[in-house]
Amino acid sequence: MSTTITLKGNEVHTIGTLPSLGTTIRDFALVDSGLHVKTLDNFKGKKKVFNIFPSIDTPTCASSARKFNEEASALHNTVVINVSKDLPFALGRFCAAEGLDNVETLSDFRSSFGDDYEVTITDSPMKGLLSRAVIVTDEDNKVVYTEQVSEIADEPNYEAALAALK
Length: 166
Known about the structure:
five-stranded mixed sheet
């Protein structure tokens, strides 16, 4: 069952729906800017904020990465994980240029994360990219908050996502 969202008012669909509250998230294999694979085990025992977006090279995606980076420094036992289909080199370039050092920025360019978490866009010019979504888990990888941003050009609800960590 796909989820309907919009891109500048035009209907777009994702492969499915975000994980349900209380469920355990699936493992993943995402790539960092040094081409190292990161899995769920790399973040064991930490609360996780997945900031999922289409591309770091768009204004809204860049804003969300900056905002979560800014907020992450004050979060106890929490990691913010930015995820997109961008190549690891582009993500590394962006983070270095912006001084983003309080977040993990990982690429889904060769994994099934988008399909596993049901955020892959299935139509429109953005077909194959990830939708804008936020998934927050506790230390045991249980989902405590989700947001499928209904308009891709809009920023997520940062306050609600961060409040779910308390």
